Every structure is written in structure tokens, then in C-alpha cells.
Amino acid sequence: MKNNRITAESLKGYVLGLVVLFSLLLRYMQVFAVDYPNGWDGSFYEMQLHTWLETGQLHSPNYSLIYVLMKFLTFFCSPANAYKLVTVLASSMFSVLIYVYSRKQLSPLDSLLVCLFTFFSPVLLFVSHQFTKNLLGLDFVLLYFVFQKKDWKLIPLLFLAFFTHRLAFVMLLFLGAWELTSYIHLRKWIFWLVPLCALFGIFSFIPGMPTLFDYARVIPELQLSFTWGFLDFYRVWSSQAFGWVWYVETAVFHVVLLMIALYYLYKKALLPLACLFLLLLLPIYDFSSGSLGYRLFLNACCLLFLFLPLCMQRPFFKKGMVALLILGLPFGLMSYDAPRFDPPIAYYKLVASRVEAALKNVADVSMIIAHKGIKEQIILTTDHQALNWAVPTHMEQHAYRLVYGVEDQELIATLGQELSSWKRISKNYLLTSELEWRRFMDALEEEGKYQRINELQSWLNPYQQRPLYLQ
Prior knowledge:
The protein is mainly alpha-helical and 471 residues long. It has 23 helices and five strands.
């Protein structure tokens, strides 16, 4: 009997080892399928680490745990590959933790099915490429559910989430508060609450950490019009960007959502998770690319995996999952369309090099204003500083701007003179001084072309100054 028990325990270890190994290999192949840092944030993290290594400090002060991990990995590889390796580790850990969590409720085979769905999921693959730091924070949220007896384990998880990602920290605060108020005596609850609040209050002064002033991020995102996640997500990205596996996961999402609603009519297991899940889906936020509603929706999709063990206990759902994975797993593994979802890094590098050449003989260039994606390439490949926000008035005199979407004919018609101060960088981009850009925009306003002004004032032509909470 003893030998049989040891063999069974060893088998569990072997299966877990295979899950870890397969997760690492699969995510490595997916992330390293391109030779640049993945997603729209990849180059930002590369730029941050590049600046840290060269100057001893980050370009944008932020002491998140992800930078510590990346700094360690630069002993073995470049900043770009350090970011990619963190992406591999964060996404692999997510799948492994889902497997471990499922094993507490399901058989090894059923747990593998749930784990395989994390490999199939195009949404999870999208999040791992676009929001690596967010996914790393979600790993600590998963650890909360992996620990059956939470008690003191919540405290280190709160600190890890605090130093990783704001949203993960807020999720754990919500779950921890629910647990404390439900199962712990009020006196003991206050005993833990007071010192923790004091510590987090002190740490909030560290750049990049959560603070009470983060409400300033949320208020501008609130809107009265009601939306629904998947419909808006497909609206943000052209329908041509999605293969059929995306729509299959959409169907699974809504089936699970319905099963959750029916299940909680007569049972209250995982009620805190269900409430958190529904809070993330509240349709009261702006839903555009990178907005709060956009990010909350993607986090809700990732938390959905925690409900799958519950759903797998229903035979019809299990059979559907088996059929889905047999037919769709190969398509889901490569569902991320990098040319469509990622910025054109090679083109942005070319634009950055032309900007440097155009400013070669210009003295006193204090800042180049350029949109996200190109800004990072200017910092990485030139000696100039760049910002994807408008600069204060006192900095405009020595600032230059990369302008998107303005034709020469429009400039001549609006300014009525030769364009010697405007340099054509590429088909889509012009380089000029910030003062010239301001003169052009003022001329449009004088002519009453407010619709054109609204078209130009977008993320491609930064027009807002950087908020205080980001400075």
C-alpha cells in the first residue's frame, strides 16, 4: 500500500512537471515567434530597461516587480529578450496555476483539459502579449485561490501584487476584505487592518505604486452609455483580426456566465470570485483600445478559467470541451496575429532614424513629441528624449513634434507659405517644431475647422499633457 501511494504521488509530480515543461516550451515558441518585444507595451519596457542600464534610473520612474525580474535577466540576455522571457514565465505560470487549482476539484485528466483550454484561449494569448505586467499580477490572484487555507498567506500575496500591478492588488484587497469580514472576528480584523494600511500608505510614495490618488485615473473613464465587453472588443479591433477560435471562446464565455448565474441560485461556493468577476464586467467605463473598460474586460476573461473546474462537473460541458480541444487546439495555439495586433516596429525604427537625421544640425532640441510606439524607438535608437504627451508651454520653444496624417497641400492652404520648417519624414509623418504645430492648429481654429481639429487630436498626435499621477 505504501509503495502504491508513493507511486501515485510520484505520478502527480511527473504530470505537473510535464505541464510546466510544455507550458514553458509552448509560450517560448509563441513569444519568440517575432524578433521584437511583443505587443504595444513591449518596446516601452525595453526602453525603460535600456535607460536603467545606461543611466542607472528608469526613464519613467516605476519600481514594479517586473523591472526587477527584467534587470536580473539582463545578466544573461538583452533588454528586449528579458521582457520576452518575463512574458514566457508569466503566461506559463498562469497555465500551471490553473492546473494546480483544478486538481483540487477534478481528476488529473479533467484538470489537464482545463489547462489545455488556457493553451487554446486566444484571449489569454492576447493578454500575455499585450499586458504582461497585468498577467504577472493575475498570477498572484490565482495563487490566492490555489491556497485552500488563506490566513497569513494573503499578506505576502498582497505585497507582491502591490509591487506588480494595481488591478491585481485591488482584486486581492476585495477578496481579502471579503474573507476577513466573513470568517474573522472584528477585533482580529482590525489588528491586521491598521498596520497593513500604514505600510501600504508608506509604500504608496514609491513611484509607480498604487495610491489613493489613483481615483484620478478612473473618473475620466466613467461613462453613462452601457456597453458589453466582447461586442466592444470586436469593435475596437477590425473583425478581420479574429479567426473563428475567438468567436468560439466568446461562446464558451457566455455559457460559463450562464452556468455561474444558475449555479449561484442555489449554491454560494466561490461567491467572492463571482462578485469580483461581475464587477469587472460592469458596463460603466469607456471601452476603447487601452482604456479601463477594455482592461477590466480582459481581466474578467482571464478569471473565467477559475470557474471551469466547476463547469467541468457537468457532463455536457465536459463533452463540449473535449470536442472543442480536439478540433480547435491547433488553431488556438497560433491565434495571435502579430502583424495586426503589434505595432510595425521595423517601420517605426526607420521613422526614428529619419527623425535623427533631420535634426542632426539642429541645436537645443529639448524634446520630441511622438506617439506611442515611435516614442520608444526614438529613445532607444537616438540621442534625443521623446514623450507621447504634449509638453508644457515653457518647453515648447525647443520641442519638436512628429505629426501624423497631414498632407502638404493642407499645410499650404492653411498656413499659406513655403513649408521649410516642415520636413517630410515618410508618407504619413512630418517633423516640425512645436511652435509651428501650434500655429497650424490655431490657424485651423480661426477657420472654424473644428472637425478637422478633433480628427488630428488623437493618440497619433498627442495633445494632452501628462497627468500628475504619471509624473
